[in-house]
Amino acid sequence: MLIPIALLLIKGTRESGVSQDMINYSDPGLVDAKLHVRSLPDGTEFEVNRHAIETCEVFRTSKSISRDIPLIYLKGNMFACCDHGFELVGDNDVRGPQEAVLDLDETEHTLTTLFRLIQQPPDPPPMENSDGTRPRFKLEAGSVIPFPVLPFMLHLVDKYGLPETITCSLHLHVQANASTNPLPVYAYATAHNLPKIAAEASAHLLHPPLSSYTKEDIQIIPTVTAYHELLRLHEYRKYKLRDILLNEDIFPHGYGTCPAHKQWATQLWEQKRVYLATQIEAGM
Question: What whole-number distance in Å separates Cα of residue 244 and Cα of residue 238?
Fold first, then answer.
């Protein structure tokens, strides 16, 4: 994924004695080199350990880079600009080859979130069941990342190529928010092709019914198709509930029959289940 925001100005150092044509980065001593990342909008500088963020695809080590290219739009391998034979210079700053500065057009908040995701990947939310069935989350205080910050975190994960394990963990946090924020979660899941999360959120949109939401609320659903599928799913659920209700006996196979009250109880159940079947709505 091309990151055009990373504008890296590279200057070769004559003192290093490195080839003028191509630099080879195979020195294992470079693994612990310090990397300084600076926020261009805010001027805040972060000192990070290269090894700690090497799991990030965009920052991963490159084997070589040509010194003939002074301005580089990097697809990845930003570490290539910070190894032996090069200095990264920005504005009037000059650093040694082991303390290069990488200027990124990201805010301080964005870089703080990014490096926290890299160095302290979030654990999945705690679950009551782990048998592969529909997950039931323990919604304990502080155990689930609030939904409003999750889309931004997932955007950074995708943008900077963080490991798939982080993506999976964050997706579980999105799903854990379905019971408390069903409409925003459903909108996000349908927009990002996450059918399991969309299905989980849709179950929590049965009540209150969709008719109770304002036009502004419903507009966050990304497409007419996604909204129509939600309506169809609700109708299917109501149909199946009516089917179960109308075909269920009060004493299945005679189990639990009370001879003295069997006829009365059966008649009462017939009346009640027919009435209930006409009252089933998406919000019940």
Answer: 10
Q: In whole angstroms, what is the distance from residue 3 CA to residue 73 CA?
A: 7
Q: To 5 degrees, how large is the angle CA 155–CA 160–CA 164?
A: 80
CA 34 to CA 177: how far, in whole Å? 38
| DSSP per-residue codes, 34-59 | EEEEEETTT--EEEEETTTTTTSGGG
Give dist(CA 141, CA 149) in Å, integer. Answer: 16
For 276, other C-beta atoms within 10 Å of its C-beta total 14
CA distance 123 to 168: 10
Distance CA 71, CA 89 (A): 11
The whole-angstrom separation of Cα 179 and Cα 63 is 47
The answer to whether the Cα torsion of 251, 253, 258, 263 is positive or negative is: positive
Report CA torsion sign: 100, 102, 107, 111: negative
8, 14, 19, 21: CA torsion to nearest 10: 50
Beta bridge partners of 6: none
pTM for this prediction: 0.71
Dump pLDDT digits (tens) for 72-122. 334 445 555 544 434 444 444 455 544 568 888 999 999 999 999 998 999
- What lies within 8 Å, CB to CB, of 80 at 6+ separation is 25, 61, 62, 64, 65, 74
Which secondary structure element, helix H or strand E, spans residue 226, and what is its range?
Answer: helix 224-246
At 159, give phi and psi (nearest 5°).
-65, -40
What pLDDT digit, counting tens, does each position of 188-238 carry?
A: 999 999 999 999 999 999 888 888 899 999 999 999 999 999 999 988 988
Distance CA 110, CA 189 (A): 23
